[in-house]
Amino acid sequence: MAPCLLMELIKGISEKMKHLLIIIFVLLTGCATTKTTELLVESKALDVSIHDAASQGNINAIKAHIANGTDLNSIDESGWTPLHWATSKVHNKAAKLLITEGADVNIVNKDGLAPLDYAENELFGVLIDNGAKSGAQLKPDGK
Questions:
Q1: Other beta carbons within 10 Å of 115
Q2: Is the CB of residue 106 less than 8 Å from the CB of residue 138?
Q3: Which DSSP category does 11 fall into?
Q4: Domain 49-143, what fold?
Q5: CB-CB neighbours of 52 under 10 Å
């Protein structure tokens, strides 16, 4: 059974069951191909929300979410996007990845702050280069 067929079969089941099925597949086939190992890592990475991954600077989990089509501009209960979290925790690599992959640099959270308001050092320049504005600048625009 090809690894891509395996993923089609397990799409609609729980994450824990996915992990178990992938492990069983590896044991039954007697080998752990690179693709199968990647599928297991990606499946495990999706156990972490994209907001938590960004807050932790977890690049692998962020990449897995991107590959899985997760909305990079999703807002959590505090009104924060993954980019807010990565920027506020000074996870520059994670923030740059989110920006490169299309995260909106001008979303304002419940406190009226944009990612630029949390930026330090080099990330400040990266955000500005990508059209970022501060929360105060965005308020008149109604964003």
A1: 33
A2: yes
A3: T
A4: 1.25.40
A5: 14
CA dist 84 and 108 (Å) reads: 9
| Among 127, 52, 40, 58, CA closest to 82 | 52
CA distances 64 to 115, 124, 125, Å, are: 22, 26, 27
Structure tokens at 128: 């500005």
Domain ranges of the chain: 1-47, 49-143
Q: Which residues contact 26 (CB under 8 A, 6 or more apart)?
A: 32, 36, 40
Per-residue tokens: 133? 């504005």
pLDDT digit string, tens, across residues 97-121: 999 999 999 999 999 999 999 999 8
pTM here is 0.70
In three-state secondary structure terms, 114 is coil
Would you give the DSSP letter of residue 47? Answer: T
Q: Are 62 and 53 in contact (CB under 8 A)?
A: yes
